Amino acid sequence: MKIVGLSGSNAGSKTRTAMDHTLQIARKKYPDAEITLIDLAEYEMTFSDGRNYTDYEGDTRTITEILMAADAILIGTPVFQASIPAVLKNIFDLLPVNAFRDKVVGIFVTAGTAKHYLMVEMQLKPILAYMKAHIVPAYVFIEEKDFQRKAIVNDDVLFRLERLVEDTALLVDAYAKIRQAKDAEYDF
To answer: Helices (DSSP H) in 32-76: which residue ranges?
Structure first.
């Protein structure tokens, strides 16, 4: 199983802190999985101009190819101006419409206040559904008060991140079995 952690911001530290913890859980629970971190703060990205993702070069091509090869993607994003960050939206714009077909996507969000929880429901989930992702139904919402000194201090958040990783892996396995059963129906 190929799991990609996509830290969807080029500013701040909370999303990366939560991503590091989430991928640590994944590495511990699924030692045979190939786990890759993409922190958008560490890459030089080109803005989408409508080309096929394979026509880009450098970091842009590397990131899009890693995402296209993944079985599961754990997206961590902050809320900026009640929306997703531009660098994350650019990733979606770089990829083809069916980029997440047969991929499971789990989500966690870092935000300053609980008032921004609808961003996932009204913006992020519709984009992922349009791109054909199998979305893990329960996402993890992490508020400012859940962090202290660049660490998550809320045990409930830590438990929910662990559950997000487990649910993501279970859905990858379930959808793989469904595809195998469907493929077995064909005689060729």
So the answer is: 58-69
Domain boundaries in the chain? 2-184
CB 39, CB 69: distance < 8 Å: no
Amino acid 188: pLDDT: 67
HSE-CB of 11 using CA atoms within 13 angstroms: 8
The predicted-structure confidence for 44-87, as pLDDT tens digits, reads as follows 999 999 999 999 999 999 999 999 999 999 999 999 989 999 99
Burial of 185 (0-12, 13-18, 19+ CB in 10 A): exposed
User: How crowded is residue 106: how many other Cβ atoms within 10 Å of its Cβ?
Assistant: 31
Task: Give the position of tokens 């970091």.
Answer: 59
Topology annotation, domain 2-184: Rossmann fold (3.40.50)
Flag whether the pTM goes above 0.85: yes
Virtual torsion, Cα 6, 11, 12, 17, nearest 10 deg: 20
